[in-house]
Amino acid sequence: MHKFLFTSCLVAFVSLAAIAQEAAYFGEKVTAKDAMQPAEFLKIMDQKGEANTKLEARINGVCQMKGCWMTLDMGNGREVMVRFRDYGFFVPKDAAGKTAIVAGKASIDTLSVETLRHYAQDAGKSKKEIDTITQPEQRVSFIANGVMIEK
């Protein structure tokens, strides 16, 4: 009986360890439950302009200075800029191409030329690319309380 119990506990422990290694968490712990896909998310943003929600999408880019923001692919050339509540956490700079689930508040913001240039510099863009930014831009932004990134 003891061998059976020990073996059962060992199998459960190994299974939990494998699940924990499938994702990395930043900020508050996030689960995939009820996460929206990009098309559904954009439809809600077009209708309401803001939402407290959870979103699952592929990471297009991450701030190369310290991982203090990332962009998520919404399809059709659209992206969502994700920043982290009170700069309380950052994500790995090499996370581009992985899938993320973010939980927090999304809104439509107008970003100034100065802010857009700052983000372009953080992304490692050239001076020539940065100098082409001459107009403010309206974007969907997301302030995340927590992020889960696939490993």
In words, what does this structure look like?
This protein has helices at residues 2-20, 38-48, 113-122, 127-131, and strands at 23-27, 50-62, 69-75, 78-84, 99-111, 137-150. It is α+β, with helices and mostly antiparallel strands and 151 residues long. It has one domain (24-150): OB fold (Dihydrolipoamide Acetyltransferase, E2P) (Beta Barrel). It has a 5-stranded mixed β-barrel. β2 (50-62) and β3 (69-75) form a beta hairpin. The two termini are 37 Å apart. The model is unreliable at 4-20 (pLDDT under 50).
Short description:
Helix content is 30%, strand content 39%.
β-strand percent reads 35-45%
Characterize the biggest β-sheet: 5 strands, mixed, barrel
Instruction: Please estimate the helix content.
Output: 25-40%
CATH topology: OB fold (Dihydrolipoamide Acetyltransferase, E2P)
Number of strands: 6
Helices and strands, in N-to-C order?
Answer: HEHEEEEHHE
- Strand order, biggest sheet? 2-3-4-6-5
Radius of gyration, in Å, reads 19 Å
Low-confidence stretches: 4-20
Look at the structure and give the mean pLDDT: 87
As for the number of domains, it is: 1
